[in-house]
């Protein structure tokens, strides 16, 4: 232990599929280390395996499929390095073993320093319209010359609501917009700017209102009152409520669904909305000045829709949604056409049976055959679709073959049928067997025709494959329920028991789930790379580290993942002050059910206890003494190790008390106790009487200690159990009135000199009669 080399620390960048986790290597001789911190029960050094690394915690359920050609080539070559299956590597408990040659090859490889890019697959089954006629242009379609940026933004904020109120209530968009501009002052009135109430409508909206002062006329007299006004979350909400206000009041029904703005502006004043005789003229002026009829034309010309579902259901491709368009009728053919979203190559077309959609009829009651705008078809899912981006085209046409002839087309945004979704439910070290239990699921649209499912174990630190295992998929109804449109979701589960190899301790272990058309696990593949995990938990606690008589009692627990294959457990007593090992003891581990429950996935947690008494020596007193718990593969306690260094402790307590002091008939009676760690190898106990007044020793007397179990129970100090003393000392009358001091001394000399430890009690005044 004397010539221990200093620990060498090497920082390396993240390796492939580490998701930015920094790694730290500890390279050190397999000896106790002296450069430790002083925090109680704190691990201050980890392991001394050649390949040891620390790892930041990672989310295991991260898709790391690589899209770039370079990354895919790398993946194939790296993973193809070893092709062992579970047939030849299975153990009696069903666990498979890593390839010995692959493990040895990995152990001889350096850490690869790389920082590759990643792509995460998305699961999506819906699509939006691309060329909708009412997609909304806001202020862009109007005459905005001379308007401020704030005024243009105001027009944008009411556009969607104005179009929607026409489709839902039949209120002309140009009227809605003009009224909003006039009555809110372009959204700048206090009621509009703070509460989005653009039309001054009183009352409450969904329970929300604000009370403000307002001027009203009663009996010809104008007075100020406080009244409740509706409060909205945004301007579009206010516009929608304005449309409902006109529908809910029957006097305005004569202006609904009218398409001539001059008719509507006349009727709204005539119906009593405003008393200003010039209200109609003002509305017309605003409509004409800014070209608000552009929104009317937009609302009248409808061509929109939505793909509600484009997904794989079992062996069928399901396509459902709706498409409503002006100028169409129920006699037209309705075709669904599927295109390759990248090349626009047509993959499929079908003249469908229309599906009734009451929800769409409610929204677009004045547009074509809106109620019969639904589509819902299922077609065989084949390799023509798998892995592609699919564009759905909905076409109304008079042509029986589906070519354009009247009617309208609607293109939707492409939906990928290359969804690749997975989760690693469990990747943990069995605390009893040392197996790595791996459970999860993997479903991928592009796994069609790839009937071989491999689980590949990959060393992310060394960038090399360690083994691959053909697995049988199991039912996962929970996945099918959550991802009903994902191919093979219902049968996507996998499970593997992997015998942990000690040579991999500290390396980043990655699981790759692969579907392939090749029995050997290569060929055409779809992979899912899970985030790496390093099995390096090293947990411990020192429950007792105290002197018990002439013994040092050491007990606690130590559980470590990297203790797999290290069957020898040592407790080392180390002098941090001198930097030398004092002693080491091989211990038998004890059952610790409490630790097994607290450290569920840590190897040997249930057998992690230790409890020993070691001889207390003089060399342990006064210095910083440290306990090291070590697992090793070497019977002598060296070799490949995993250590836990507990906080050092100094045994230098020196405690005492005078329980009784009496003077009678020229005799001083003393009783008390003195316990001190430094009393070891000091068998002579003297009580010395010292004259503090004159500065001279009066006398000393050798005493024989007696048992003090109360002191032993209260203090874990050497000789506390037998620390009591009782003595009677003769005193001369000449000492009356002097301050006397009692000293308790343990010495290695029969005369009370030599090496000794003293306890000086407080001086006392004595009166001798």
TrEMBL record:
<feature type="region of interest" description="Disordered">
    <location>
        <begin position="49"/>
        <end position="68"/>
    </location>
</feature>
<dbReference type="GO" id="GO:0004040">
    <property type="term" value="F:amidase activity"/>
</dbReference>
<dbReference type="InterPro" id="IPR002901">
    <property type="entry name" value="MGlyc_endo_b_GlcNAc-like_dom"/>
</dbReference>
<dbReference type="Pfam" id="PF01832">
    <property type="entry name" value="Glucosaminidase"/>
</dbReference>
<comment type="similarity">
    <text>Belongs to the glycosyl hydrolase 73 family.</text>
</comment>
<keyword id="KW-0732">Signal</keyword>
<dbReference type="InterPro" id="IPR051056">
    <property type="entry name" value="Glycosyl_Hydrolase_73"/>
</dbReference>
<keyword id="KW-0378">Hydrolase</keyword>
<feature type="domain" description="Mannosyl-glycoprotein endo-beta-N-acetylglucosamidase-like">
    <location>
        <begin position="144"/>
        <end position="296"/>
    </location>
</feature>
<feature type="signal peptide">
    <location>
        <begin position="1"/>
        <end position="30"/>
    </location>
</feature>
<protein>
    <submittedName>
        <fullName>Mannosyl-glycoprotein endo-beta-N-acetylglucosaminidase</fullName>
    </submittedName>
</protein>
